[in-house]
Specification:
alpha/beta; oxidoreductase activity, acting on the CH-OH group of donors, NAD or NADP as acceptor; Sc_DH/Rdtase_CS; seven-stranded parallel sheet; KR_dom; 3-hydroxybutyrate dehydrogenase; Rossmann fold
Length: about 260
């Protein structure tokens, strides 16, 4: 997908979970659109990602190492920022959590998924809010799984349903401050997280990863998997002046898989 031309010159954009995958694709889109970009992640690859984005845009991209579930870590990361015009809450964790799985690991995984995807995103928004001016935008990465049920991924599915609840509540709460809050709900994107889920699902079903991905593509109206860079356009749109009248909404981008 070729993103329409948007101009974010002079606007500070903060993208969480931006070291790779969808987050990096979003950050790349804003970098190309001229934004003053800050990327945040709890990932040793963050500095390298920021360096690539700096080379791409010709402007310095700041890298903020941070665990979004840790209030002190978030506070320290945000300390050097004076303004955030667009906050993209993209950081997240996707793991399989079969309810009948034996051992304590699945319980720990369930808690961590919810802690990152729900508590962490809420905490990041809360602590970033004093930096967001009137007319600012807050965007969340949800998922098509925020609108359906998927066997053995209850933690991730529940967390993404909760993400839409956050979006709708915060849109009402922050409307008097002139801040719009929306979500993008991607379908299957060729990322490390998505392919891991495909492999794990395939192993549990006695299939190959390719067979599972074939099922995914067959369920879509348009063929093929999206690439992370394909996701930049909807975020740019919602953050731009063209999206100024949109708040409390979830924009599904899934090549026609769900149509709900």
């Amino acid at each position: 997908m070729t993103a329409p031309r948007y101009d974010f010159s002079g606007r500070r954009v903060l993208v969480t979970g931006a070291s790779r995958g969808i987050g990096y694709g979003i950050a790349e889109g804003f970098a190309r659109a001229g934004a003053e970009l800050t990327v945040l992640a709890d990932d040793p690859g963050l500095s390298e990602a920021a360096a690539r984005l700096t080379a791409l845009s010709g402007r310095p991209v700041e890298a903020l190492p941070c665990d979004i579930t840790d209030e002190a870590s978030v506070t320290a990361a945000l300390a050097g920022l004076e303004r955030v015009d667009v906050l993209v809450n993209n950081a997240g964790l996707e793991r399989i959590t079969p309810i009948a799985a034996e051992g304590p690991e699945v319980v720990e995984t369930f808690r961590r998924v919810v802690e990152i995807n729900v508590v962490g995103s809420w905490l990041m928004t809360r602590l970033c809010l004093p930096l967001i001016p009137e007319g600012g935008r807050i965007l969340f990465t949800a998922s098509i799984w925020s609108k359906v049920g998927v066997a053995e991924f209850s933690a991730y599915v529940a967390s993404k349903h909760a993400t839409l609840g956050l979006v709708r509540s915060l849109a009402r709460e922050l409307a008097p401050r002139g801040i719009a809050v929306n979500a993008v709900c991607p379908g299957w994107v060729r990322t490390e997280a998505a392919l891991r889920s495909a492999r794990e699902s395939a192993a549990r079903r006695g299939l190959t990863e390719e067979a599972v991905l074939d099922e995914v593509v067959a369920a879509q109206a348009f063929g093929g998997l999206m690439e992370p860079s394909d996701l930049a356009a909807p975020y740019l749109f919602l953050a731009s002046d063209a999206g100024r009248d949109i708040t409390g909404q979830s924009l599904t981008v899934d090549r026609g898989e769900t149509m709900i």
